[in-house]
Amino acid sequence: MGSATAVLRVPTGKYFINVVKERCKECGLCVFVCPTKVLDKGSERNSRGYRFAVPVRPEKCIGCRMCEYSCPDFAIFIEVGGG
Amino acid sequence: MAVAHPLDRYLRTDRLPTMWCPGCGLGILLGCILRALDRRIREGSLRRENVGFAGGIGCSARMTLYPYFDSAHVIHGRAIPFALGVKIVKPEMKMIVVGGDGDIAAIGGNHILHAIRRNADLVVIMANNMIYGMTGGQQAPTTPRGLYTTTTPYGNPEREINIVKLAAALGANYVARGSVTHTPLLEQMIYKALGKRGLAFVEVLSTCPELFGRHIGFRSPVDLYSELRKRVVVKTRPSVEESDYSWERGFVIGEFVDRDEPGFIEVLQEYTSRARGGAG
Amino acid sequence: MRVDYVTGNTAIALGSIAAGLRFYAGYPITPTSDIFEFLARELPKRGGYVVQFEDEIASINAAIGASWACAKSMTATSGPGFSLMVEALSLAVITETPVVVVYVMRTGPSTGVPTRSGQYDVLQATYGFHGGLVVPVLAPATPQEAFDLTVRAFNVSEKLRTPVVLLSDATIAHTYGRVVVREPGEVEVVERAKPSVPPEKYRPYDPGEGLVPPMACFGEGYNVLVESLTHDERGYYAPRSDVQRRLMWRLYRKIVESAPELFDYGAAYLDGCDVALVSYGSTSLSTLVAAKILRSEGYRACSIRLRTLFPVYEEGIRRLLNGVGKVFVVENNVGLYYRELRGVLRGSEVVSVPIIDLDLPQPREVVEVVKQWL
Lengths: 83, 280, 374
Description:
heterotrimer; A: mainly beta; Alpha-Beta Plaits; three-stranded antiparallel β-sheet; two-stranded antiparallel ribbon; about 10% helix; B: alpha/beta; Rossmann fold; nine-stranded mixed β-sheet; globular
C-alpha cells in the first residue's frame, strides 16, 4: 500500500496530471467535468477500496484545472511543465 | 503534515480524506474557499494568522475540521455569535462562518437576521444542499416545495426560503449566490467577500447525492451534479428581484448586492472611543 | 480602593471590571438588566466592549467566542435566559472556555414573578446542562460578597478553564450595601496559562502534567481548534471509549479536585454550636437573624452560609459541622440544596427548612420551623 500522499504523476506534454490515490473516493466528478475526456475511473483500488481516477488520454489535457477545482477531496491537481 | 496538493499548506492533511460522502459538494466549496484565501494571503491583503473559521453543526459546519487555521466547531446554529464575539474583541481577525442551510437559515435564523442587520463584519458562507444531510435527509427550509425527503414522504408542502432576498433586504454589504458546479465564479465571489467590510453573505448551492439526490432520482454524484448544473442560471449583476430560487424555474447565481457601508465593528469602535474621549 | 454604597447588581458589575472584564454580551432580563446598563456606561471607558445581542443564546455564544480571542467575558441572566444558555454552557465545558455567567435568580418556574426573589434554580446552575459534569457555582449574600465573588469567579474560570456561575438572586440584586470597591490592579487577578511551546508543537487539549491545558487564542498563529465533539489532545474528533473516558475524567477531576481550594463559607456563633442553620445567598440574611434569636432563647444555634455551592467539598462540610447535633438547611425553594447536604452528612440529623417567600424567608418563620424539631 502506498503512503497517504502517494501520487500518480502523469506527464501530458505541457502539464503533469497528479492523482493523490488515497484521497480519491471514486465519485467520478473529475471524469465528468473534463472537457476533453482525459480521465476515467481506473481499475486499481486504493486502501479504502476506491478505484481512483487515472488519465487515460493525457495528451488531450488542456490544463484547464476543471478536475482540480471540481474534486471534493483534494485528490487531483495539475502542474504546468513537462513539455 | 505531508504535502501533495497545492492546497495542502492550508489543510490539516492528517485528517484527510474528509468525512464527506463521495461526490459531496462541500469539498468542492472548501477548495474554493482555500484558493480564495490563498490569493488573499499571497497578495498580502490577509494575514494567515488572522483568518479564523467558525461552524455550527452539520456536514457543512464540519468544514471547520480541515482548514489549517484557527477554527471552531461549535453548536448547532450558533457559529455566527461565536464568530462575532471573536471579531468584536479582535477586529484584525477575518472570521469566516461556514454552515449549512439548516444551521444558518433554520436553527440559526435569528442570528443571521441580526448579524446582517448589524452589517457585522463577517464572511458568512451558507452551503445549501437543500436538505439536512448529517441527520439523514430531512426537509430543510431550503428544500424546494414538492420534493421528497425523509420527513416529507408525500412531498414538501412548505415554501422554500430565498435567503438572498433576506440578506439584501436587511442590508448586507455583499450578497452573492454561487454553485459548486461553477467553481471559478464561486472562488471569485468568496475572494471578493473576503475583501469586504460589513457582512458578506455567499449562498452556495451544493450537492448531497447520498441523502438529497437519492430521494429525487439522482443517486450518483455525477447525476445530481449535472442536474444541478442544468438548473443553475448564471447572470451577470442580477438584481435581487431576479434571484429566483426554484427547482422548476431554476436557481439564479451571481452577485446581487455589492456596496460599501461601514461595518458594525468600526461603528462600535467609534462609539466606544466616544466613551473614552467623553466621560473618561 | 474606595468605599461605596451600591446594590448587589452594581457590585457585580464593579467586581467584573476589577477582575479585568473586556467583553460583556447581554440580553435584557429582570432582575439583571442594571448590571448590563452599568457596564454599558462604564466598560467602554476602560477599553472594553458591551454589546446587546438578539437573545441569551447569542450572548453566551458571543462571550465564548470572545474568550477564545483572549478577552475575559461575561454575561448575566435569570432563569428563562439561563435555560436558553445551557446548551452553550455545555460547549464551554467541553471546549474548556473560561467565561463567567451571572445568574440572578427570580421567582419561577417560567415567567413566575420576574421582579421578586427565590432560590429555585440552585441545582440548575450546575446540573442544568447536558453532559453530566459540574461547573463551579459561587453564591454571594451581600453586595460586598457580590463584588468579591465576582472577582473570584473570573479567577476560578481562568485558572480551571471552565464556565463559572455566579449565583445571586433578586433580593441581593437590589439590596444596597457598603462595598469596599477595588480597582483593577488592587485585586489579585489570575490569567489563564498560555502555551510555552511553538505553534507546530501545540496541542490545545493537552494538560501536560496537570489537569488544565494551556490555552492559545485566535489570532496568535497557533491554529487552535475549538471542538464541541469528543476530541483527543489535538482537538481531533475521536469517537472512542478510551478518549471519552480520558476527557470526561479530566474535565470532572479538574473541578472536583479543586473543591478544597474553592470551598468558602461565612459563619456566625460557631462556638459550641449544636443547632446549625445552613443556607446560602439572600436566605443567609434571614438565618443569621434566626440564629441570633435562637441564641437569645438559649439554644446553641449557629448560622453558616455557603459561598461555594459547587463543587461540594464533602470533607470540608463534614469537618465544619462535626459535632453539631442537628443541621437545618434553610432555603427559599422546595428543599433543593438540602439533597446535596443530606448525602454529605449521612449520620447527622439533617432537616430541610424550605420556606417559599417572594422576598426573604422571615427570621421568625425560620425560628418557628426549626423549633418544631428541637
